[in-house]
């Protein structure tokens, strides 16, 4: 890709570092500037990634004429104000998920993008990986028949909760916002619809956020979805799509590797009491599909963003998709009393 976008990054946390490495590996992006409220952190980040412009604060990044697009890698509660500020400065924006603290903020952000004539996309990076696209193609192509059930999990165990933004209610933390949003997004993608009904239960941390949650959603046509997310436990972090004629297993759905990402299309063995003969209890061998992206996940996300800016390609995550996800998050968080 001959055209390149100059990127400015707000924030220097782990996700910002992963994304910066992706920009460096992309064919469409150049790292121009980084800003942090901690000058030492900004300087360390700049040295690590060879960023020429290093600022104490975020406003100078927005003012840099060499910056075309801002990556907002700040706490959830700061997405709204800094995305709107960046759009007002004439920059495109890639905003980390979840898009905002609530649906109203997300709608204001997209309205601001429309007024500014700039691109705003929510950074669900897994949506750019060829594995996700291949799974979606298999589902849409009828590889497992009619979709009946979607099961996902996304959990991790952290021992450091004090000072952790994920455990800060004022910063719109909690497991649903941090990682449950992936499960909701994936379920809505596969069902290709918005849920008509939901339920949710959670373990509430002493800080007032949901430290773990389980949820269900019902979609048009009777498709069911269930998920588990948590910040104080371990799980397999997989995704399963169960259909009338088979099922798909995705061992690594949320951050697929650059090489040899794998998903399996399989068929269940019927109960022996239902078997009419030996062949009836021997299902077809699972079909193992291997997908090699050939590039870093965040580099692909960077190039996808550039394709929307330069070529007008539909974003992997559209406005309607982001707003739909926030509505489900709002509804579930209200029911839990953590919003």
The helix content is: 25-40%
Query: How much is the average pLDDT?
Result: 95
Q: How many structural units, i.e. domains?
A: 2
How would you sum up the global shape?
A: globular
Instruction: Give the N-to-C terminal Cα separation.
Output: 43 Å
The succession of helices and strands, N to C, reads EHEHEHEHEHEHEHEEEEEEEHH
CATH class designation of the largest domain: Alpha Beta
Strand order of the largest sheet: 8-9-10-7-11-12-13-14
Number of helices: 9
Uncertain stretches of 5 or more adjacent residues:
none
- Largest sheet features: 8 strands, mixed
Number of strands: 14
The fold-level CATH name of the largest domain is Dihydrodipicolinate Reductase, domain 2
Content of β-strand: 15-25%
Structural class: alpha/beta
Identify the CATH homologous superfamily of the largest domain: Dihydrodipicolinate Reductase, domain 2
What Rg, in angstroms, do the CA atoms define?
Answer: 21 Å
Report on the structure:
The protein has 339 residues and is an alpha/beta fold. The protein folds into two domains: 140 residues, Rossmann fold, CATH 3.40.50.720; 160 residues, 2-Layer Sandwich (Dihydrodipicolinate Reductase, domain 2). It has nine helices and 14 strands. The strands form two sheets. It has an eight-stranded mixed sheet, covered by helices on one side. A hairpin with a 3-residue loop joins strand 11 and strand 12. Helix 1 packs across helix 8, helix 4 packs parallel to helix 5 and helix 5 runs antiparallel to helix 9. It is globular, with a radius of gyration of 21 Å. The model has no long low-confidence stretch (mean pLDDT 95).
């Amino acid at each position: 890709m001959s055209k390149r976008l100059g990127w400015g990054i707000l924030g220097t946390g782990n996700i910002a570092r992963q994304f910066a490495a992706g920009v460096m590996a992309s064919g469409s992006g150049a790292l121009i500037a980084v800003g942090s409220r901690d000058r030492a952190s900004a300087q360390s980040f700049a040295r690590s990634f060879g960023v020429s412009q290093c600022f104490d604060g975020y406003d100078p990044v927005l003012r840099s004429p060499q910056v075309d697009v801002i990556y907002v890698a700040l706490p959830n509660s700061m997405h709204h104000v800094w995305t709107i500020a960046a759009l007002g400065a004439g920059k495109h924006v890639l905003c980390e998920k979840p898009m905002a603290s609530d649906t109203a903020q997300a709608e204001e952000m997209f309205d601001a993008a429309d007024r500014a004539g700039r691109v705003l996309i929510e950074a669900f990076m897994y949506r750019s990986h060829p594995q996700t696209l291949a799974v979606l193609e298999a589902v849409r192509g009828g590889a497992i028949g009619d979709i009946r059930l979607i099961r996902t999990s996304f959990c991790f165990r952290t021992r450091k909760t004090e000072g952790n933004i994920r455990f800060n209610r004022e910063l719109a933390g909690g497991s649903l916002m941090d990682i449950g949003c992936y499960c909701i997004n994936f379920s809505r993608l596969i069902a290709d619809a918005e849920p008509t009904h939901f339920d949710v239960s959670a373990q509430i941390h002493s800080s007032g956020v949901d430290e773990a949650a389980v949820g269900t959603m019902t979609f048009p046509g009777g498709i069911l979805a269930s998920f588990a997310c948590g910040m104080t436990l371990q799980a397999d972090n997989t995704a399963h799509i169960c259909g009338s004629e088979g099922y798909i297993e995705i061992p690594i759905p949320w951050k697929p590797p650059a090489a040899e990402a794998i998903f399996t299309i399989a068929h269940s063995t019927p109960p022996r009491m239902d078997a009419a003969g030996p062949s009836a209890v021997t299902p077809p061998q699972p079909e193992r599909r291997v997908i090699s992206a050939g590039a870093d996940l965040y580099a692909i996300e960077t190039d996808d963003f550039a394709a929307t800016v330069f070529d007008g390609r539909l974003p992997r995550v559209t406005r309607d998709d982001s707003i739909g996800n926030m509505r489900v998050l709002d509804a579930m968080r209200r029911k839990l009393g953590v919003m």
